[in-house]
């Protein structure tokens, strides 16, 4: 019985604590509701950001309207232009690209389709050009791709007899200066300027070396690099570059020319776009928001000025790694596809140059950031002379959303832990009270239905307190009723003996005076009285058992000898039955009450004889181990039904056929045997033999 209770307790139970804990999980719906709210908030913030950028673009463009000096040029069609980047540090003229690493991605590429190809041969000439300004100097880097580099021969009569680079400087009306870079070897050199002088007979060309232009020529695996610097005062409004290629050392004629302004670069160089200091100072004063970039464009989308950066510093939350698992991450390092651009394109820019304010959302090239841009036109009279573009990423929105979500999660987590602890404490208190009440109820009544304990009465005013008081009152009434039932057998036997004695004496007196023909009625009355006496005796035996257990004397007895004497007596008492005793050769001693032990054996042997088929002996086997002493009593004959195996040793349970038995049976014999076995610390069980040939009663006692 105890083992089965443990196995039942080991199974998972849906206790009050578990139910309350699951109920507390409903608090986790708060972060989900907050998350949905944050998504709505994000949509609102996105709209607010877009409107903010549009308003900022209009505010910045407002002082530029009708400002002719800021937008002096009117272009109806795009023309070739060169953009000068603002450098953060001076460039070292060495022919290498390390100083240009932050700007080289924005270099312009020129090839034969945009220049002059002198022969109908496959073009192998192309170059990249980038210009930058720092302090009072203009820097330039040309990366020329040429399959064969030819250098100038100092002894040659030709002024230009090798690969060369030409710079053309001028204004909007005429070309003023032309400089040629034709080194005789790689390294530092000075460019030349060709001057034509006419006398009375002919026109002659003279070479003049320019010392205020620094240049470095470095040959590479794919061609050569030219890095140069010149003072800003030398340049005006227009500037052009022409790269010439010579592939034949004997002929040394120029086979290909590629210019930055097309085939007519030498006569009409492209316009030079220099960042406007006035516009830069203006936009820096108007908007200094961190993480926001401002562009000012001309009517063709070319950059006149820019300010700010899309990158911004963000504070790192100490639990940032944890929240990255449930919140979208904010990437501070993303690819900025417009950093250093000289010309902008896009739907919003086209709309702004067309006279409308427009905004656009786009992903960065590496898809790590979302960039929002708003563009608005700049008007000079009734004409659009330029546009203002304001850009910003959504990282600030995500940061605000993240901080709000982190705060919500932290507060919800604290509330959840607090409420869960309170619920668990409350559930634990309920569980302890109910568990104590359950244990008291379980211990108050033993396995046989007898009330052996009491229950404490709770003073609490809740339902559990009412339950404990009702249980205590019910147990008290049940105990009184059990006491009444237990004393009923003794009272009946006591009360019935006197009238039965009167009836017995009356029958004895009648026996001498009754006629022979009426003796059969007297015999029947005598048999009925005998059966009543036997019934009262058995009731008395059961009633006296509790008193006998209290007054029993324990002594150490050799069970082998005891069983031998008992079997001899059983053989005389049950002449129709046979007995077979199997005991160890050695002495088996046990501390028992001999009278009670014999009474227990009598009940079991009587039951075995009654159910034996008389053809097989009743086997009695005694065995022992280190832990226990076992006594098996086996009778061959009828077997136990399945439903009776668990009830056989209960009080008032009998499986005898009433039609085949003349003696009264109250179902108390095996109940008395079980009670005596448990008094000695053991237990008794009955089971059918293998093959269903009979029943075995096993008595097991601890050593």
CATH architecture grouping of the largest domain: Sandwich
User: How many separate domains make up the residues?
Assistant: 4
Instruction: Give me the count of strands.
Output: 27
Helix content: 25-40%
CATH level-3 fold name of the largest domain: Immunoglobulin-like
Integer-rounded radius of gyration = 58 Å
Percentage of β-strand residues: 15-25%
The overall average pLDDT, rounded, is: 80
| Major sheet characteristics | 8 strands, mixed
| CATH classification, class level of the largest domain | Mainly Beta
Secondary structural class: alpha+beta
What distance separates the N and C termini? 20 Å
Extract low-pLDDT stretches: 1-9, 114-121
Features:
single chain, Beta-Lactamase, Immunoglobulin-like, 703 residues, alpha+beta, 27 strands
List the helices and strands and how they pair.
Blueprint: H1 2-10, H2 16-24, H3 29-61, E1 81-86, E2 108-111, E3 116-117, E4 126-134, E5 137-145, E6 164-170, E7 175-181, E8 187-189, E9 192-198, E10 203-209, E11 214-219, E12 223-231, E13 238-245, E14 256-259, E15 271-273, H4 277-286, E16 292-298, E17 303-308, H5 320-324, H6 347-353, E18 358-363, E19 370-380, E20 383-393, H7 395-444, H8 463-513, H9 519-551, E21 555-558, H10 559-573, E22 579-582, E23 589-592, H11 594-611, E24 618-624, E25 628-636, H12 669-679, E26 683-688, E27 694-702
Parallel strand pairs: 1-4, 1-15, 22-24
Antiparallel strand pairs: 2-4, 3-14, 4-5, 5-12, 6-7, 6-13, 8-11, 9-10, 11-12, 13-14, 16-17, 16-20, 18-19, 19-20, 21-23, 24-25, 25-27, 26-27
Helix pairs in contact: 2-7, 3-7, 7-8, 8-9, 11-12
